[in-house]
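Replying to the earlier thread about multi-chain prediction with a worked example.

Input:
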Amino acid sequence: MDALIERTKLSLLYFLLLLMLGILAFTAVNTLEAVRNFQQQERALQAGDVKTIHSWMTIPVISHIYHVPEDYLYCTLHISNPGQRSHATLDEIAISKRQPVDRVIRTTQQAILTYRKEHPHVLTPTSTLHREMKPRAPMPGRT
Amino acid sequence: MNAFFIDVLQLYGYPALWLIVFVAAAGAPISGSLLLFAAGAFASLGDFNIFMLFPIALSAAVMGDNLGYFIGRRVGMPLIGWLERQKRFRFITPQALERGRAYFRRRAAWTVFITRFLIVVLGGPVNLVAGLEQYPYHNFLFWDISGQILGAIIPLGLGFVFAKSWEEVAGIFGALSSLFLALLVVMILLAVLMRKMRQRRRARSASIIKAEEKDMLIPD
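Result:
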């Protein structure tokens, strides 16, 4: 009886080990995939590809990364009070506008592409954008 | 879920970061380190001061861990006692429970340290178990702070350096963390399996010797 229990325990251990080896292989593939994703993202960012716009980005961040004036983006997204919305992410803008975030992202991408077409020689951020590179003083509601 | 926390982080700044990291460290199913990646990135893009982020993240994480530890210390023992009395949980025998507890006691320092920055997902349960096991508080605090220093520096630093692609870097970090956890479990299983095999071999050779001795004792 003891031998049977012992054998069952061993079989269970072998099974668990096999399962874990499978999970290990899966996580290794996942890690490689994550590295590849990162490399692709970096390449796309260097090329200024607008597909790299994410929902976590705020208008000042997009303005800085893609070299488009903040005011132009605010205007495109029909944001009337830019001063108060400088900390709003695209996700939050989408919520406040009751629109899907993908639509807001697409609008922003389109705005950047249009701006680039209209200003083919503008490659550097405008002066208002340099302000954003320094740590800001605490904002209202931010201590 | 993460988008919501990032929105909150952007809107309410440092207090929001402290609160979210605290709740995550106390054991809530929130990714505190993902938020630290985001905060590091936002600091690089001009929204936060990186030197302020570090003490805020560290204090929040340590306080959250301490809350988990004291909850474990306060409600852990009655819970274990109740578990041992329940017939429904008989598949966890008291001996198995005791073996698990002894195993934790032997490796508590290392476990507390590593779950602060590498296997973050186990941080909450480890705090509870450390409290439950009455692991000495000053030891817990020492290993907790040591681990959390790395736990704050790594995501904040990586987020700061790779600000524009912090999500992808956080993805790599998360994948590496899972890989390490899986590797650890495989190593433990291998060790247990080898020990079992050795015990089996020893038992078999002992029974052969016993049989031979018996044969020698029986006269022809």
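Chain B touches chain A at residues 3, 6-7, 10-15, 38, 42-43, 45-50, 162, 164-165, 167-169, 171-172, 174-176, 178-179, 181-183, 185-186, 189-190, 192-193, 196-197, 200 (CB under 8 Å).

Feel free to reuse this layout for your own posts.
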